[in-house]
Amino acid sequence: MSHIDDYETQKANLSYIRQAMDEPMLEKDHELDLATRWREQGDEAALHELVKSYTRLVIAMASRFRNYGLPTGDLIQEGNIGLMQAANRFEPERGVRFSTYAQWWIRAAIQDYVLRNWSIVRTGTTAAQKSLFFNLRRLRARIEGKKEKEGLNDDDRQKIAKKLKVKTTEVQDMEARLSGGDQSLNAQIGEDGADEWQSLLSDDRPNPEDVVIGMKDAQTRSQWLREALGTLDDRERRIIRKRHLSGNVVTLEDLGTEMGISKERVRQLEARAMDKLKTSLSPHGAAAFF
Question: What is the architecture, at CATH level 2, of domain 1-118?
Fold first, then answer.
């Protein structure tokens, strides 16, 4: 997936970048004062000055992700969101420079945006996969720089997997994802363009006709079973329902205690009831029920 900014957008981005880079750097004490005023007093002017001064951090971070084919302006705006999150969460009393703290939030915001928009297929759902997504290109380039030909072999993938603490199969899968872009299922195949890629996809689900037939068959079998149960007396029907038609099968002993008869008597009644059912259902194929 590739997004190319038009001339006017590029011009606006450059103007924004120049303006941000012209903002003065903050001294430590002044930075602390601004952060404290925002946190304790809700001073929006202090927040505005703090954020404007460190927009340069956003631009620097966004430039690291320019090779993912996403609009520069969008990367910067996502980084600005991370910068605002950092300002809202920053605790001046901890003695850490705001610039150091903000870098993590800016990077996280931009990375999340890249993962959401680099491909229509969701990529990097775990921390390990995110690390693999953002580091595989760099590690692959380093390895290939030491060899005469491009491409990774099994040993190379094992080294990357060990370094990033992921499975070798995950390295292979991510390598394949990064090497190819998204392709529309409506893209035409061949010179004449008579077919589309989606026409080659197989659907393992039953077709509508089979679904309807299956539903009809199930309804018919249920009707036959209800009629067969009607040939039993109350005790026999109770035993069959508890022993064969319930999700929680009751033991002969428990059912005997419940009905006030012996375990052996329950077994006899069950056997008699099953014979009646098989006789009633035999014209319909009793084997389909038992």
Answer: Up-down Bundle (1.20)
Q: Measuring CA to CA, which residue among 143, 164, 160, 137 is closest to residue 68?
A: 137
Per-residue pLDDT reduced to its tens digit, 205-220: 777 777 666 667 778 8
- Beta pairing partners, 189: 195
Burial level of 229, CB count in 10 A (0-12/13-18/19+)? middle
CATH 1.10.10.10 fits 208-288, yes or no: yes
The answer to whether 206 touches 214, Cβ cutoff 8 Å, is: yes
- Segment 31-53, tens digit of pLDDT: 999 999 999 999 999 999 999 99
